[in-house]
Specification:
globular, 3 domains, 14-stranded parallel beta sheet, Pectate Lyase C-like, 41 strands
Amino acid sequence: MFSSPVGPSAYITAMTILAVLFAVSLPGATAAARGPRTITVGHRDADVVGNDSFALQKAADRLAEDGGTLIIKSGTYTMYNSLSVPSNVTVRGEDPPPVLVKCDGFETKLVTDCGYGLDSAVVEDASGLRVGMGVSFLDDGNRSGWAVNVRTITAIKGNHLTIDRLTNRDYIVTRNAFIRSAFPIVCGLEAENVRLENLIVDGNKEKNGALNGCRGGAIYFWKSRNCHVVNCVARNFNGDGISFQVSPGVTVEACESYGNAALGVHPGSGSHHCAVTGCRIHDNGTDGLFLCWRVQHSRFADNETRNNGRYGISIGHKDTDNLFVNNTVTGNAQHGVCFRKETEANAGHRNTFRNNTITDNGTSGEGCGVYINGITHDITLVNNVIADTRDADAKTQHYAVWITPDTDGIRIDGNDLRGNKEGAIHNESAGERNSIKKNKT
């Protein structure tokens, strides 16, 4: 019979220690024991020292396996490429917030066609490019939407570039093919549970070419889930301020988006069950809040959309079943709220506006408080103020609500519709289910 040279208690303790050591040696056990970490990046006195996107990405990549928190110290950081945030990572700026500024833009023509499925390109001039820089591929037939490819340069030899991923469009020299250093500044790509806090993201708009909101923005998510942006500023981007595409469950809270060339906040492409709350969205080139395709079952509350170059809020392609509550929509160039012209299959049905203030829009000379276009059904406007509050000769909001002929199921109940330039409601609808009552006109 085996006889231990030590007592039973000591033997059990030794076996327990050996078991723990064995478990920790198993694949993944070390990471589980270590858990999430915090890493700092800054100009000095940080885990990663630097003042550009390369330092930021190096720090973020250290958290890619286990998740954790990236603290960005105060200061200005030059962005030569996106800060791509891994899943389960929080990026938090110290006070005062760090400013992430896009580098000056650079463009050059392609010398040879860059066809589908290539990881290389030949350019006319590579002098303004560098390894690790983000670039977009475009030509006259591929200048917007999903037709633009955003890639990273991995090698440069003379005027020959190597990129990180294959192209999925044909960029043709006879269609004036070119690349420009355009990319989202902070992004989550096929990520989940990303959180951004207390950052200022500046697009350096005057020195950069445009990037369409489907492919980028100052802050951008693509095919991501359950991401949260809080207390961030997205400004001066030659494109959209905040854009999230194919990304359900995104929350944008207490942010400011202004001075961008296109849209202020752009949820789209099936980004359902999202929320935009407590944000200031102003002085953007086109719309303040633009619901693109299939934004559904989402909540937009306590936002201010002001002084935007077209609409305050735009709703369209299959953007259904959303709630807008306690928003202020004022001073926008055309309609305060616009339901875009869509077929019945594609219209923005079953949206509700409650307790909003929609005033003094149409500053370009054309516009209403709410314009309901297309074959749009079942829109509810209840307990809103939709008015022009200015003196008679300064009024530009023609009607509180304009209802076009093919709409139906429009409920306008208990609103204050007084003071508009030409009247309260311009109703062209032949719908049999409309209900208009108890409004102050």
